[in-house]
Amino acid sequence: MRKTKKKTIFIILGVLIVIIFVSLGVVNAMKSKQEAGVSVKTAKIVKQDIESNIFTSGIVISKKYREITSDLSGKISEVLVEEGDRVKKGDLLARLDCEDLEYDLEQREIKLEIARDKLNRLKKEDKRNLETNFKNAQIKYKDAVKDYDDKKKLFEAGAISKSGLEEAESSMERAYNDYSLAKKKYSDADNLSEVRMQEKEIKSMELEIDRKRSNIEKTKIVSPIDGTVTEVNVSDLSVVDSYTLMFKIEDMENLEVVTNISEYDIGKIQLGQHVKVTNDGMEKKEYKGTVTYIAPNAFIERNGQGTETVVKVKIDIDGKNTEFKPNFSANVEINTANKKGVLVVPYEAIYNERNGNNSIFVVENNKVKKHTIETGIESDLIVEIIGENLKEGDQVILDPTERIQDGIDVKIRDEDRK
Q: 65-95+220-249: what CATH class?
């Protein structure tokens, strides 16, 4: 019994001794680590050129294209072009049958000539009659004036009564009224009602003839632009309506890319920015482009993840002889900003503080020096930094945490010292 008790005591003492030695080892290890400092991963501040780009994709379209329809319904008598033909503005693409229109026009032109002859006859007849009436009234008025003057002398001589003079005066006034009316009718001969009605009828006939001539001209289907015929949807003897798409003409030498930019990036886009345009099927082919249009409004675009608010942007593809064709897909890289010879660090070096400031931690003589900075241009992997007392070659801590504080000791990994 006594031996067992002693044995238990020895075991307990042994365990206590082991615990003491282990504890001393841990303390010594921690002390050694603190003396050496926290091990950190770093990178150097570099001075270099930097640019910021937005990468997206879009669809190539012709800057100028037209869908050709006919203003008239009718039968096509001849199609003069095929897909792939190059045409100039005003070139004839097709003709509609216009035989009935031409016959109708000829009949209306004959009727117009007859109406014009009738108008001339009316004007001549009316004017002759009115001229005769005017001259007769003029003669009667002169005779009445002479008769009045003669009777006035006789009255003054006492040869006739006053009533005789008054009767002569009344006759003169009636003759003057008849003369004035005849004179006005003769002067207004071209404005008489029958003549005016005939003139209006002729005007109506002329307008209708102009419309017929215009319709005959519209049977000639012509190209409104220079370009290439990319669609032909009709053939000889086809019957078309005003809504039938007959041809599509596209300017294949002046192309643009239409793309949609997220509302989060659209503020970086400006007219005139340079763009690189490529296509997955064109190996190592790269074309230059320019931002030429930014839509004034945004719209909701549906995608695989849901919806996104975007703004339409158009990019001119510089050069006329490219391998792009309308409806090709295009990869675009829009250069939104660039600077030369600025200080940059990897994104991982930026520490975002709770108050919204950005900081970096520079290692100087194995101690941390905190620098509050502003960021400038951002590229895919690096960012421009702007701050005081920063220079090329400074070692900055990557992926800093709250443990990294100004003034603490750190140890740079050997591979980062190079």
A: mainly beta
